[in-house]
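retry 2 of 3: previous attempt timed out while embedding copper (II) ion. Reduced batch size to 1 and resubmitted. Inputs unchanged:
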Amino acid sequence: MDRKGIVLGSKLAVFSMILLWHRHGVDQPRNPWSDGPEFITQCPIRPGGNFTYQVILFEEEGTLWWHAHSDFDRATVHGAIVIHPKHGTTFPFNKPDKEIPIILGEWWNDDVEHVLDEAKRTGGDQGNTYLLRVINTGLTNDMFFAIAGHCLTVVSIDARYTKPLTVDYIMIAPGHYIMIAPGQTMDVLLEANFTLGSNSRYYMATRAFITLPVDTIPFNNSTVTAIPTARPPGPPEFPLLLLAIKDEDAAMAFVTQLRSLGNQDHPVHVPTQVDERMLIDIDVNFLPCDTTNATNKSCKGPQGNRFAASLNNVSFESPAIDVLDAYYYGSGRGPVNAFVNPTGDNGGGPLLTKHGTKVKVVEYGTVVEVVFQDLSSKNHPMHLHGFAFYVVGRGSGTFDERRDPATYNLVNPPFQNTVSVPKSSWAAIRFRADNPGVWFMHCHFDRHVVWGMDTVFIVKDGKTPQAQMLPRPPNMPEC
Ligand SMILES: [Cu+2]
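retry 2 succeeded.
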């Protein structure tokens, strides 16, 4: 096993902020201590404090990113992690002439209004192939991305290689676009070999994909552009197609085309026997406003309620101490005696929900299948810490446990750490719970995180030392 350690100092904690770091998509074998989410695996780093995270890369190659995992801090506190092939190996595609990170972010005016406002300018030459490492750091939206006059070939998602998926420029839909969920990364090959019109300047453009009625949340749906080639002057060409902001069919068409690379160097190991099946309803709903609580007086939801979000009709409530410490100390490494409440109680999407700190405890090595069922009017990028998972199935409408498993792809499904669940659809994921620890699972829209669209997997220690959590570092921040 070839492991590489990176140490990120949390020097930014000297700012008057509470910051946490989380290396998105890094599996962190046996090491929940450096995973990052506040009150899940650690207490927040206080202003002036510091904590050194040990990032353990496992088999990732490609692009990941790190970001703060405290409130909305990750809107601006984030960056790319580029993982090249190991020494002596190479990309499973022709070596690109240049690699260019493209970080799609959001510009916020206040809590709910935002303007998409970032795409990086780069320069390029005709005939070269570029590897664009595209990251969606946004808090609230999936995005479409396209480059005028050019095909895009997706070769990796969440630092796992995919079968090259070329989106043909003469296609209208699906074509000329990729869709990235917040939290997701994609590596995309761009061959600068297409001449359109009389000049060689092309816009790359991105636009949000949002399925809510646009007037529900005031928001500027501008298309953001940058010019990737900087050769002769003249008006650049705009992409022939940039998808409509609510184009659900295009979103579904794109995500269903993704496949794992599945070659000798990068094999696919989809677990075929499932030990534990979970159906998790995803919903956006309300909690009653607690008028006795002074901090809660400004409940601005309908009928004096406040917005909430839930998994299986439970809106996650952050505990006062972090779940990992509660598990580590409260359990004596044996059965958990704090926060023991497996998720369950499928609610069917009532208007009002309940809140609680519910976690799911599984034995080491359990094969878990989760079917996410969207009951809300929005798509949700569901993200699991500690694991990558195979996205084995998808479908519109309501999941049918008798019929739909027959449609699963168990041969070469994509291997991801964030799965976009489009509005009114379901997505099935599988993973083997062979990483002992405490692992957050949540929607990657940050508004939904703070509204409670979260839960926690606790994977118990296995029998051998290699199947047990690493010891608790001595300098963990205190709550
Ligand atoms: Cu969500």
